[in-house]
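Following up on my earlier thread - several people asked me to post the actual chain instead of describing it. Fair enough. Here it is, all 399 residues.
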Amino acid sequence: MQAHSRYIAHVEDPGPVGLPAGLRMGLLVVSILGALGWLASAASNASQAWQALLLNYLFFLMLGLGGIVFTAIQYVASARWSVAVRRIAEGMSVFVPVAFAFFLIIVLFGWGDLYGGMREGVHLSAAKAVYISQGGVIVKGLLFFAAWCVFIYVIMKNSLTQDKNRDAELSQKNIRLSILFLIVFAASFSLHVVDLLMALEPKWFSTMFGVYCFAGLFLSTMCVITLITLAMRRRDTVRGAIQSRQLYDLGTWIMAFSCFMVYIGFSQYMLIWYANLPEETFYMIARTQNGWEFVTILLPLLKWIIPFLVLMPQPFRGNPVVLTLVCIAVLVGQWIDIYWMIYPVFSRESPVIPGVAEIGAFLAILGVFGWSIDWFYRRHSVLPIGDPNLVSSVNGSYL
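Reply from S.P.:
Thanks for posting it. Predicted structure:
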C-alpha cells in the first residue's frame, strides 16, 4: 500500500458528481426497453417472468439496503477510513423507497404465479399459513419499508445537514440511530427474505438463511461502492479526496467478506448435511443434481475463490483494473445466487437459461436504480464535507 508524503490540511468540496446527460438518457432508454422485454415475456410465460422480476427486485433491493447498512456500520464503529466513501453508500440507499413499488407489484400481481402453486398439497400450521399468506407478507412489507425509509431519511438528513453547519454532534446522533437501525434491520431483513425466498419452499427452513442473505448483501454492496468510487475518481476534484488508500481498504473488505460469505454458506450446508433431516435436505438435493450442481459450483467460485485469491496480493487490492474485474465477478455471483434460490423451485429437471424475462427485468430495474442514485449524486456533494473525521480519512490517520 502506498503512503502519501503530503499532508492535506483542508479538503476541497468537489460538489455533486452526477452522470452526463447522455448516460442518464441511456439509463432511461435501457429501463424502458427492459420493461418492454419483460412485459413481452410475461405474455408468453408469466411464471418465469415473475421469477425474473423477483430475482432482480431482491438483487437491487439488497444493494440499496446495503448502502445504509454500510453507512450505519461505519458510524457504529466510529470508522475513519470510510468517511471519504461514506456518501457514496448513502446515495445507494435512496433506491429503497423506490424498490417498494416493485415489492407491491410482485406481491399484488405475481403472487399466484410465484407462491400459489407452492402451497398445494403442503400441510402448514394455521399460524404459519397466515404468516406467509399474501396479506401477511404485504403487512410486514409495509412495516419493514416504513422502518427502513425512516432510518434512511433521518440518518441521511443529519449527514447532509452536517455539510452546512459542521456540527460534530450530528455524528453522535447518527451513531445512536445506527445502533438502533442495525438491530431493526437484522430482524426485518431476515423476515423479508423468509417471506419472499424461503416461502417459495414452504416446507423448508434454515436458521442460517437470513445471515446467508445478509452476507451476499454486504459483499455485493462493497463491490458496487468500489465500482462507483472508481468511476467518481475519474474526476480530479474527487481523486484528491478519495485516494488509493481507500481503494486498498475497499479491496481488503471485499476479500475479507468473501471469506465470511463462504463460511456462512458452508455452515448452512454443513448443518443440513450433518442433521440429514428430510425436511431440510430436499432443498440442497434439488440444487445438486439435474445440472443444478454446475450452478452451485459457480457460487463459491465467483463469490469466494476469485475475490480471495486475486485480492490476496496486496498490490492488487488497490489496482483499479483488478478491482473492477473482481467486483463484476462477485456481482454476477450474487445474481446467480438469488437465481439459485428461486429457479430450482419451478424447474427441478434442469437449470433455466436466462432469457428475455431475466435480461428485461434486470435492465428495467438497473435503469431505475441508476436514476435513483444519480438523482442523489447530482444534488449533494459526494463527500461528507462537514464530517470532523474527513481530513483524517483522506490522510490515512485512522486512529
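Residues 1-5 have pLDDT under 50 and may be disordered. That should answer part of your original question.
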